[in-house]
Amino acid sequence: MKICRLSLFNLKRNKREAAAIVFLTLITTFLMTTFAVSITQIDRAFDRAFEETGCADFILLFQADRYRDIYRDILEEEYHVTDVRESSVLYGAGASALSKKGESIAYNMIFADENTERKMENFQKLNALPDDEIEKLSHPIWLPQYFEITAGYAPGETFTFVSGGRDYPFTIAGFYNTGLYNSSSMLKCIISEDDRVLLSAVYEEYRMIAFDTEREFSYEEYYEKCAAKSNENVLSAVLPLDKDMEKMVETAYLAVFLYMSVFLSIVTMISALFLILHKISKDMEEQMVQIGVLEALGYTSRELSFSYICEYIFTGGIGAIIGGITAAAFSPVMDTLTRGMMNRNVHTDVNILRILIVVIAIIALVTLFALSRAARVKKLPPVVAFRKGIKTHHFGKNILPLEKMRHSINIRLAFKGIFNDLHSNIGTGICMIAAGVAIMFSVYLFDFFKSGYNGLIGVLGMETPDISIIMMSGVNGESFCDEIRKFPEVEKVLLTRAMGDYVEIKGCNQSAAVFSYADFSLTDNIRLKTGRFPEYDNEIMISARREKTENRHIGDSIIIKGDVCEKSYIITGIVTAMNNNGISVYMTEDGYRRIRPNDRPNAVEITLKNEEDRSAFTDKLTTLYGASAKDTAYAQSAQGSLEERIRAKADEKMAVLISQYGVTDVDYAIRIGDTIISGNSSHFVIKEISSMKDFLKSQMESIAAVTKTFSFCAVIFIAVVVAVILGIIAASAVKRQRRELGIMKSMGYTSRDLMIQLTLRILPVTIISSCIAAVLSVWVQRAFWMAAFGVQIPESLPLIIGTTAALVLFCLIVTYISAGSIRKISVTELMTE
Amino acid sequence: MIPILHTEKLCKSFSNGATQQHVIKNLDLEIMEGDFTVIMGASGSGKSTLLYALSGMDKPTLGKIFFGDTEIQDYTNDQLAVFRRKNCGFVFQGIYLLENQSVLDNVLTGAFVVQKNSPGLIKRVKELLAKVGLDEAMQKKYPNQLSGGEAQRVGIVRAVINEPKILFADEPTGSLDSASGRDVLDIFTGVHENGQSIVMVTHDIRTALRGTRVIYLRDGKVVGDHRMAKYGGDDLKERREKLTGFLDEMGW
Q1: CA within 13 Å, CB half, A488
Q2: Which of A74, A260, A301, A685 could disulfide-link A378, Cβ–Cβ 3.0 to 4.6 Å?
Q3: DSSP class of residue A563?
């Protein structure tokens, strides 16, 4: 009991330090508990959604014209899948739509009717209009929860798709719960059968195969079997999705934030533990005579150690318990945050056991550290304690004697002071390094996302043209490009292949997205990390993630499987590439033809000059090269003379043949009496026009905004932790050096002089630890980007230097302000005590 | 003689919760330049309080303090610190050396605050320390390695190194044995002989004998003022008798 009184006495005397330890342990427990509870709840939220919707384990979408029945047979015969559901859907890669604000945005959107939906999963409707109102809707659409949660749509509102300058407005009948296709990378909406037919002229038709299997299913193995039996390239015709992939895509970002929270909590914990060690040391120093007296009175060193430990069990315990309770109370807020990031309804059950484990673990850690330092009481027999320990006796060398120093007295005394409290400075340095790394990393993140998703575009590893055109089959791409280049609005035109082209790499389980250009030096956004662009047909570049995960390097050979052959390529460069989850490879146009000799570039990427209006130029292209085949297919026939009407109708028919049946050239001749009206499909150059920028906006805008906010909050949070630590250290230094400071005041040193001295004392440790933190933060940043996105973003030296300088300055300002308690030291009081 | 320091209706009170304790009451006092003024009085008479108020260590509650022609009672703490560094030196009963600094550094800490990097300063400090019996070897020692007398000598050197206009001492021999006390007082006498104004608080007659003026305080007021010749310039026995007589009169 008496021992506890000693603890309470210490707590009362050092209220600020006690409050800081409570604060730091509270924050640590809160962050740790939130992580421990949330990380499992995310999985559960998915499992619940999969169970509620009864969604298929696997869904394969094959391009309708490239689908072969044998693919289904393989599943049934070789994989023994009994319940293969088959249907048709439409797929719009980067389908343009209007956002709620009326801005252009694009989604990878699957269009299914209700029957097809029921083959994939139960059609579980959520928030919806009344049935009688839905029946009255001419174009109802059911959107996945993504649109309700992320984009803020409500039932009854209009959702408009845009294609070829034409609007396709739908009325939102409601939202539905979907197991798969609920991430920004691919979404699925449910429309009526009639609307599906209407849109089939706009979006490409895919054959959908849904199936469940409890056996392990390997896509690569399946594709190989399909290719072997069909002699066709399956990989470039299929879009696969399964529960694990969906979970990974939707939670990738959330998991990153949760792990970052753990990182922050570790920084906070290090700070709390340092503060505990610092405080016990200083308390023991200050109370040494008292310790001696108590020992002389018969208290054992174990009892005295316990008195110190009690103090931290008490403060750490209060902090940990409040942190645990706060985390439990915070779970509804966490649900909302998680919901926003996963685009799903999440309900976090407060897991008392996990909270208790974290709370107990933190109290145990605090106790352990307190014990390690408090055990030093054993080394203080009464006689030593009476003499204030051996440390106050100087027998060693006078470090930095004043007579040999040439700076101002404040600097001289500050530098001498550093060596008087070296242990504390080392501890401060460790804290500063941890906090510095966290703060700098957060600053880098904030800086990267400060202008929205533009930073991400820079590391995509693919071109982001203003306009992407997929040409009709048979169109001479080079001639078309030459024509486009002549327009005054155009800055640059590149001939390439439409996205979604995949190849297999021998000896590797993961297929690769291929990007091919005749000359990579003309690209803007394919940036080398190391090496050079491929120039010859046997050269290739790979993504940084492939370099790391597959341990491939410049100069290595890589074998790419073509449709009917395998070809070897030499790696010439490594590209910073975030696209396709970092699985891309890059080869020259000639290089591509080695594996697919009959394949010709089918896409044109147009970059406009800065001031040019994208939609105006799109209209111009449409006028000159005919509307895209898809848009023309079900257009209303033009008004005008008989010949004009006939020609319009003929165009419409040709468009249907081209867009839906893959016909490449059509000639027609129509005889009306003596008049023959003839024509051909040569003016159908454009198969599809889209904007990569709009698509990237839907993919990255919210990610960028959340990361920016998170990193900003992290900077503020860590700054507060640093301020608390430095504030406490400075204030306790003032308290414990009251006598020395009073003596110096009596000599004529002003409070300002003394505050400067105290501030300058931490200058070296701040500079050194900030520099170490700067180096480590670059390393952490590289590791983070590589692990999260498979890219390496370029470091900005001015930003690193600026942040380091700002951190040093911040620490000095905080210390200077905290040392303000020097002003309260009264010389008279000191002399008369 | 010209007053170096004077007060007008100086008051100093301390509040202790609801009660106010008036320690110095309407005090008018002049301290003359070149004087060795000794302030005496019973415990609680306000000697130290007066010393700290006069020296700018503490602010008065009411009244004025003039240093020459300058009023200092309204100075801020930092202004008072600058005032002290330029004009005052202090010697304390508790000595108050900086424990983690060597003897030389203790003195230099006091010296550098005023004289910055003046040429020959370090040499002068060393000479002064040697003069009070602290040789090179002693100068490298730390306070915990010194005797009380040695430490107080360091304190005196630290107080006079900046050649203050006035030197304040609060019972400088209070914690010393008689031999050490005598040595310390000899130093004070020597300093005074060089023209240094000194104000010293003491309740030791042997110490008071060194002064040229003894002021007696009672209940915060000056109730007696006794003048003497410079120490050594008269018969010590007679000097002692006169002082004892004065103190007896004061009720010492």
Answers
A1: 1
A2: A301
A3: S
Which chain B residues are Cβ-neighbours of A399 within 8 angstroms? Answer: none
Interchain CB contact of B81 with A (< 8 Å)? yes
**Who wins on pLDDT, A457 or A753?**
A753
Answering whether pTM is above 0.80, one says: no
Of A278, A277, A276, A304, nearest to A290 (Cα)? A304
| pLDDT over 80 at A532, yes or no | yes
Q: B113 — contact with chain A (CB < 8 Å)?
A: yes
- Out of A406, A420, A752, the one facing B100 most closely (by C-beta) is A420
Q: What pLDDT, in 10s, does the model give residues A712-733? A: 998 998 899 889 888 888 888 8
pLDDT tens, A595-606?
888 788 889 999
Residue A633 banded pLDDT, cuts 50, 70, 90 = low
The pLDDT score that the predictor gives to residue A340 is 76
Q: Quote the tokens at residue A170.
A: 């739908």
**Facing residue for B102 by CB, picked from A398, A743, A826:** A398
What's the pLDDT score for residue A634?
56
More confident residue, B186 or A663: B186
The 3-state secondary structure of A295-345, one letter per residue: HHCCCCHHHHHHHHHHHHHHHHHHHHHHHHHHHHHHHHHHHHHHHHHHCCC
Cα B35 to Cα A269, B41, B181, B197, B245: the distances in Å are 62, 19, 21, 5, 21
| Residue in B with minimal Cα distance to A742 | B96
Q: How far is A765 from chain B (nearest CA, A)?
A: 20
Indicate the residue of A394, A749, A823 with minimum beta-carbon distance to B113: A749
Helix (H, G, I), strand (E, B) or coil at A91: strand
Say how far apart CA A534 and CA A553 lie, in whole Å: 14
- Cα–Cα distance for residue pair A153/A147, rounded to 1 Å: 6
- CA triple A265-A282-A20, angle to 5 deg: 35
Shortest CA gap B238–chain A (Å): 35
